[in-house]
Amino acid sequence: MPRKLLSNASVDALEAPQTGQRLVWDSRLSGFGVRLSAAGKRVYIAQGRANGRTVRITIGRADHLSCDQARVLAKVRLGEMAQGTDRNHQKKLKRVQAVSVKTAFQEFSKARASNKASTLTLYKRYLDTRFADWQDHPWTAITRQMVLDRHRKIGDENGQRTANNAMRTLRSLLSFCRATYRDPATGELLTNENPVRALSDTKAWFKEACREDHLKPSDINPWWRAVAIEADQTQRDYLYALLLTGLRSMELATLKWKDVNLKDRVLTFSDTKNGSTHRLPISNWLQATLEHRAKGTNPFEFVFPATGKTPSTAGHVMWFNRLLVRVAKKAKVEMQTRHGLRRTFASVGAQIGIGTFPLKRLMNHQSGTSADITMQYAQLSVEALRKPAEQIAQFILKCAGELESADVVPLPNSALK
């Protein structure tokens, strides 16, 4: 590297490189120099070693500082390096420590692009509604006590299950932050732990009883009638189909006509919770409903498009919380959730004697235990599921008064689990 005594005059006289950069070092102060760019810029720099690593920092532009001023500042910076201070590292460290919760979630969403869109939407809802005042905070500023206080507050104001779910979302986000935003020099973690761990350490998680809400056979008729009154046509068809198929709510909501085979009477779901393709037979009642809805549709349109005064931007039916509360109130039943309809389907199937294996297949439940190894090998065709699916649908329709009446019997507790 060329060396010469740097001064205002000598720096001004230096010839800029044709391309790239050129470094010229001072012959008076080792580690002090000037960097020249092809564009003609002249910037004073200091280079030394800190903690065994070569560090080069910018002092300032030559048109802002005199050479003597830059040399004095460079001497100070070189002294700091000799004592182990790396200002470049400090700047980078501050940047990763100062990433806001909002920015972190944007990066988190990109990294989790393979997740279901509905999952990320739910995460964002929790962030926007339960942690709105934290979004501009650095992720490193979230403390254990903040977590404990907010968890308690959400529980008091919005319910214990909501509080737990919100904290699970925060835990996932902060775990991502800890893994992603590390010490730029060493790669070490910047925090000792995920602050949401405080809930486990203090046993502060709210206890969540297994949900058992469902429609008893005697509830089905008033619920069915209440839906007919409170819901529009699309909402009605969707809720009735949920009850008659036992499908997960978002899997049915996102069903498109290209996945409906009315000729063979089969529905195909590729984007399922457990990642497997689920093929389901269409019952007689559902066949008639779908044939009526299919008129004039596009294959890539949703079977149950968004409706209402402010329809979902997703393009398909979305949230039914308020509607189901109105329906439950009108029908005088306790069940107020879409998943309760899935539990009703399973409960009816168990009550009328549908075997465990076909019922699992109808609900697309995977068998993950060693005790279930035979079921993991056994496969049932769609046609083998058609009879049990129709039996469940007919029992429900009889309870609803849509077919000749069935005997109303109480369901055993074991069917509700």
Compact overview of the structure:
By secondary structure, the chain is of the alpha+beta class. It has 17 helices and 8 strands. Strands 1-2-3-4-5 form a 5-stranded mixed beta sheet, with helices on one face.
Please give a structural write-up:
The protein is α+β, with helices and mostly antiparallel strands. The protein is built from 17 helices and 8 strands. The strands form 2 sheets. It has a 5-stranded mixed beta sheet with strand order 1-2-3-4-5, with helices on one face. It has a 3-stranded antiparallel beta sheet with strand order 6-7-8. The longest helix has 21 residues, at 160-180.
Please give the largest β-sheet: 5 strands, mixed
Task: Quickly give the structural class.
Answer: alpha+beta
Give the helix level as a range of percent.
Answer: 40-55%
Topology as H/E string? EHEEEEHHHHHHHHHHEEEHHHHHH
How many β-strand runs? 8
Low-confidence stretches: none
- Global outline: elongated
For the record, give the distance between the C-alpha atoms at the N and C termini, rounded to a whole number.
Answer: 77 Å
User: What is the mean pLDDT?
Assistant: 89
Number of helices: 17
**What spatial order of strands do you see in the largest sheet?**
1-2-3-4-5
Backbone CA Rg: 33 Å
Strand content: 5-15%
